[in-house]
Amino acid sequence: MSVFRNVIFNFKSEEDCENFLTRYKIFIEQDEKIGLETFYICRLTKDSLLIFAMIDTEENAKKLLDKSTEWRELNRFEFHDQMVLDGNLEESWNFL
């Protein structure tokens, strides 16, 4: 069963947000697609992002979270706060 993970990042500045966004696109496009089924980055405000992902298993969700956390710590991004929501995917629809 797939799991979902929502992460909201509130950065200290618009520049920090842009820096993260530029670097994260590269990070996720390269080789960090551990079990990813669907992935969205959404702009909430000029200095905050919502990331929504569906991952194939809880095990891969943990691996991806660990890799992402390690990457963020190495890059020393500064946040006011962040919030993570996750759980099992009950249903999904794609109307495209």
Quick recap:
It is built from 2 helices and 4 strands. The protein has helices at 14-30, 58-75, and strands at 3-11, 36-45, 48-55, 79-88. The two termini are 23 Å apart.
Write the layout of secondary structure elements.
Elements (H helix, E strand, L loop, with lengths): L2 E9 L2 H17 L5 E10 L2 E8 L2 H18 L3 E10 L8
Antiparallel strand pairs: 1-3, 1-4, 2-3
Provide a descriptive summary of the structure in words.
36% of the residues lie in helices and 39% in strands. It is an alpha+beta fold and 96 residues long. It has a four-stranded antiparallel sheet. Strand 2 (36-45) and strand 3 form a beta hairpin. The model has no long low-confidence stretch (mean pLDDT 87).
The low-confidence runs, each spanning 5 or more residues with pLDDT under 50, are none
N-to-C span: 23 Å
**Largest beta sheet, briefly?**
4 strands, antiparallel
Assembly level: single chain
Strand content: 35-45%
Name the structural class: alpha+beta
Number of beta strands:
4
Which characteristics define this entry?
alpha+beta, 96 residues, four-stranded antiparallel sheet
